[in-house]
Design a protein that fits this description.
The chain is of the alpha+beta class and 401 residues long. Helices cover 48% and strands 20% of the residues. It is built from six helices and twelve strands. The longest helix has 49 residues, at 342-390. Its main location: membrane. It is found in: Membrane. The chain crosses the membrane at residues 212-230, 242-263, 283-300, 312-332, 347-370. Residues 1-25 form the signal peptide.
């Protein structure tokens, strides 16, 4: 028992020492950074995401702050931005400092107020004065220098920081998932504290996740499974008519859940009018229309012996396989739109590969059963034919020719 307590105590001291050493090393690395202009700041803090650091000196006499925002690990073809959000919590509403390399090869720094998700970070004045701003780039790191005249009566604000690609002279949208959607928090320039950020899930992110899960499960999984059940279960005589009801249950459930996912997509689109994923949206609309046609076609399904049943089957199969193909393609379009949900994409890829492998095995097994059944039927037919030669008239074997 004493040995156990000694071990636990030693482990606790060791872990505490490691954490203290790590924290001390991070602080030293932050404060020991040497700027090329030899500028020194009173406070620095590593921001929790996107390889960013904020240095500043707060001047209470005139309520200004001199700061340097460092954003590392980015090419010079990117843009970086840091901003204060006076009344909100994230990027929309932020009063930003932006830097990128312009067509002349110079690092251009300017101010940009962000009023919508679809902003291109156009140059403009902020809600507070910025007497000085400049930027530089070296060693895969942008640094923005600025002096801010803070709004009166406050030293604590919400902050946000980002980076994205530059296409020509246009600043394109940042990644819409992962760390880029969590790069916000708070900063108190007076006491040097950072808060929040890094782990919060916003309501918009939650709706995006719900939209993705609903559509991946419905259009992307249940629809293909329903088709597999219909194609391969009906080969077994014992599964008739159970295969039909399983097929209908899968496809109806997929349609209902898919409509819910489609509705969340419409809501996301209406809330983010400046962000468009045209291909994803158009395929989604097409899927909804084709899926609705399939549901109504079920109500008009002719009986098996009806003369139009063949044409209905051709239509039903063609539209059904088109829906499945478009569904899978659009799920991957959704993952590409998120541009960061690699684990989800890998998981869904695994599910589709599994369904495809099962379908291939069942296809081979089905053909084996069909061929075997045809041989059996052929043998029976041959045997019946031989008996018919010997006794062509059934019970009339005693009739005379």
């Amino acid at each position: 028992m004493n040995n156990l307590l000694t071990t636990l105590l030693f482990s606790s001291i060791l872990i505490s020492t490691l954490f203290s050493t790590s924290s001390y090393a991070q602080t030293q690395n932050c404060s020991a950074f040497a700027f090329r202009n030899n500028q020194i700041f009173a406070t620095c803090n590593a921001l929790p995401l996107l390889n960013s650091v904020l240095h500043w000196s707060y001047h209470p006499d005139n309520h200004t702050v001199d700061l340097a925002y460092r954003h590392g690990g980015v090419p010079n073809t990117d843009w970086v931005a840091w901003g204060l959000n006076i009344d909100g919590t994230m990027m929309v509403g932020s009063q930003c400092l932006v830097a990128f390399r312009n067509s002349s090869g110079e690092i251009h720094a300017y101010t940009s107020p962000v009023s919508s998700y679809g902003t291109q970070l156009a140059e403009g004045p902020l809600s507070f004065n910025v007497p000085r701003i400049g930027a530089e780039y070296s060693n895969n790191e942008f640094i923005i220098f600025a002096t801010l005249e803070l709004p009166a009566g406050r030293t604590s604000f919400n902050q946000a920081w980002q980076n994205g690609a530059v296409s020509g002279q246009a600043l394109t949208a940042h990644v819409q998932s992962g760390d880029n959607m969590r790069s916000f928090g708070s900063v108190d320039f007076a006491n040097g504290e950072l808060g929040g950020g890094g782990s919060s899930v916003t309501s918009r992110q939650r709706r995006r996740n719900v939209h993705g899960v609903l559509n991946a499960v419905s259009w992307g999984v249940l629809m293909p499974m329903g088709a597999v059940f219909a194609r391969y279960l009906k080969v077994f005589k014992a599964a008739n008519p159970a295969w039909f009801y399983i097929h209908v249950a899968c496809q109806t459930s997929a349609y209902i859940v898919g409509v819910a996912g489609w509705g969340t997509g419409l809501k996301l689109g209406s809330d983010s009018t400046d962000i468009e994923f045209t291909t994803h949206r158009n395929i989604g609309i097409t899927l909804f229309c084709l899926g609705t046609l399939q549901v109504f076609a079920l109500l008009l399904r002719p009986k098996p012996d009806h003369k139009y049943r063949l044409y209905w089957n051709i239509y039903h199969h063609a539209v059904g396989y088109a829906v499945i193909g478009l569904s899978i393609a659009n799920v991957f379009e959704g993952f590409d739109a998120l541009n960061g949900q690699k684990n989800w994409k890998r998981a869904y890829t695994g599910v589709i590969i599994a369904i495809g492998a099962i379908a291939v095995l069942l296809e081979a097994f089905t053909w084996f059963i069909v061929i075997k059944r045809k041989k059996t039927d052929s043998n029976k037919h041959t045997q019946n034919g031989t008996n018919g030669t010997v006794n062509p008239y059934g019970n009339g074997t005693h009739q005379q020719a």
